[in-house]
Amino acid sequence: MNIQLYLERINYDGNVTASLDVLSKLQVLHLMNVPFENLDIQHQIKIDLDNLFDKIITRKRGGFCYELNGMFYKLLKQIGFVVKMVSARVYNNVTKSYSPEFDHMALIVSLNKDDYLVDVGFGEFALYPIKIESGTKTEDPGGTFRIDRYNNKYFVVKKKNEDGEFIAEYNFTKKERKIKEFYPRCNYHQVNKESYFTQKRICSLPTEWGRITLTGTTLKITEKGIVKETKLNDEMEVQQVLWSCFGIKL
């Protein structure tokens, strides 16, 4: 893999030593330059988890968790980070239950005897690594997070809501997984009508002052706490927004 092209894709021009500072910079720049999107799924284009470089780096597209974290894993591994893919189960606040194993891919990076949760593929989430330390609050531009233990088996990452409550995002273990283990669930999210990703188009990026998200035909721009929503009239306007806001040309 050509690391230099990858770093140019995310606008990173610093050193590439395996340190927390470098990891933090790589993560936030990845999030701000590589969109979280499901456009291939919406166009029924099969996602190949073993060949992501062309899509994400060469063609400057985005992807969802298996693609984004799968690609970021390769970058971190080649730089020299001690990193592993882990399975995560997403929390459903309506049913008060967790999704099946492998429903989400996250990363764990080990640095100086500490482990950090790293995730560039979960939509509105932390912009920087979260130290895996039970009960400790982490302040991040993306919110306030806390990692707790769950059933003495899982770690669960929680995010503080507007009422001051910490609500689960997903749970995970530290068991290392291989990319092939994610294939069945990745396929499910591409074809099953009950999957969130098959139901409507989504493309999203955090910005310096907030976030910009296209959901279906609605463009939502959040800037310094102010939200502006615009309904797009047709597919031509959608394509214009994809290019002007996300740098995506289908």
Protein architecture, described:
- The chain is of the alpha+beta class and 250 residues long.
- The protein has 2 domains: 3-196, Arylamine N-acetyltransferase fold, CATH 3.30.2140; 207-246, no CATH class.
- 28% of the residues lie in helices and 32% in strands.
- It is built from 8 helices and 14 strands.
- It has helices at residues 3-9, 20-33, 39-42, 53-58, 65-79, 183-191, 196-199, 235-246; strands at residues 36-37, 82-92, 97-98, 104-111, 114-118, 130-131, 137-140, 143-150, 154-160, 166-172, 202-206, 210-215, 218-223, 226-231.
- Strand 11 (202-206) and strand 12 (210-215) form a beta hairpin.
- The two termini are 24 Å apart.
- 33% of the residues are buried.
- The model has no long low-confidence stretch (mean pLDDT 95).
Strands, helices and their partners?
Blueprint: H1 3-9, H2 20-33, E1 36-37, H3 39-42, H4 53-58, H5 65-79, E2 82-92, E3 97-98, E4 104-111, E5 114-118, E6 130-131, E7 137-140, E8 143-150, E9 154-160, E10 166-172, H6 183-191, H7 196-199, E11 202-206, E12 210-215, E13 218-223, E14 226-231, H8 235-246
Antiparallel strand pairs: 1-11, 2-3, 2-4, 2-10, 4-5, 5-6, 7-8, 8-9, 9-10, 11-12, 12-13, 13-14
Q: What is the count of helical runs?
A: 8
Beta strand %: 25-35%
**Can you tell me the CATH architecture of the largest domain?**
2-Layer Sandwich
Element-by-element helix/strand order = HHEHHHEEEEEEEEEHHEEEEH
Instruction: Give the overall average pLDDT.
Output: 95
Overall geometry: globular
Unreliable stretches? none
Q: Structural class, please?
A: alpha+beta
How far apart the termini lie comes to 24 Å
CATH level 1 name of the largest domain: Alpha Beta
Helical content stands at 25-40%
Quickly count the domains. 2
Radius of gyration from the alpha-carbon trace, in angstroms = 17 Å
Counting DSSP E segments of at least 2 residues, the number of strands comes to 14
- The CATH topology of the largest domain is what? Arylamine N-acetyltransferase fold
